[in-house]
């Protein structure tokens, strides 16, 4: 089976990407789906900051790789034993496959699946196999998805079925931005109605988290980002306050707005100063969630006595502590009835050929969520 893929051969090429063109759209050959795998025709794929982190080498991965990890599609063909799906099913892909049998999976924490993490680290499907070849060489899969492709072979454990009345373009965002952002607030942060929340980092994932805080009944929602246009957009989406964390007295200002600090601060910026700010504006007894992905060498220092004396919680959140088969249909239903207006985050629709232009726009901070729509 022939397909086109977005092939990344070399990380860390210089910007602008419109000139260095790190992604090449090339023809590739897909193997038949193996046991528990299926062939999926892509409908839409979102451009996410973690794709950019692979392109710019902040999160190095094994090259060459067919990248992209946030997608929706339609099942075309089942491999042996892919019994949970049928051809024609609409699916959202999840960028951590879950085996269902390891300790985290058994404990109801499939986002931490151990074979899933190992496969993602190796650039294979959950089976340990690679199913893409291009120009005579084997190509690595990106997080079991490789979304910027016309067709992909994926593990059925990387997919969740959705209703056919859900528009597939915005459904793609359920797989990363929504699962990660909304989940960080509602699952990891355990937001309760009436609590004060801060969202630190207002990219696609952060703004999805903000929509989650609105839907979850937060009282005051403080939007934090260095960029004024992002803060303004957050105010349109339901934030009650917005602040530049580098402005003089920013911590005191947030504490004033929220009578001593927020109950829940969720950091989605992936930078240590952002996490420090999030921790500092959290009230006594409050929770700070970090769902950003800072550079592996980054370190955080703070006075741990506050954890004890103020009963503070500092908590990590991966893929929004999700249970995909539970959360994706739930968020999809909230999207369809208008309580999670995800479509507001979709700033651009682009063709696969224009993907380098898309990543340059993302790197320049000129887009929230851009979606590649396939024919
Ligand atoms: Zn992502
Ligand atoms: Zn598992």
TrEMBL record:
PROSITE patterns: ADH_ZINC. Residues 18-373 form the Enoyl reductase (ER) domain. Keywords: Metal-binding, NAD, Oxidoreductase, Zinc. Its cofactor is Zn(2+). One of its GO terms (cellular component) is cytosol. Belongs to the zinc-containing alcohol dehydrogenase family. This is Alcohol dehydrogenase. It comes from Notoacmeibacter marinus. The lineage of its organism: Bacteria, Pseudomonadati, Pseudomonadota, Alphaproteobacteria, Hyphomicrobiales.
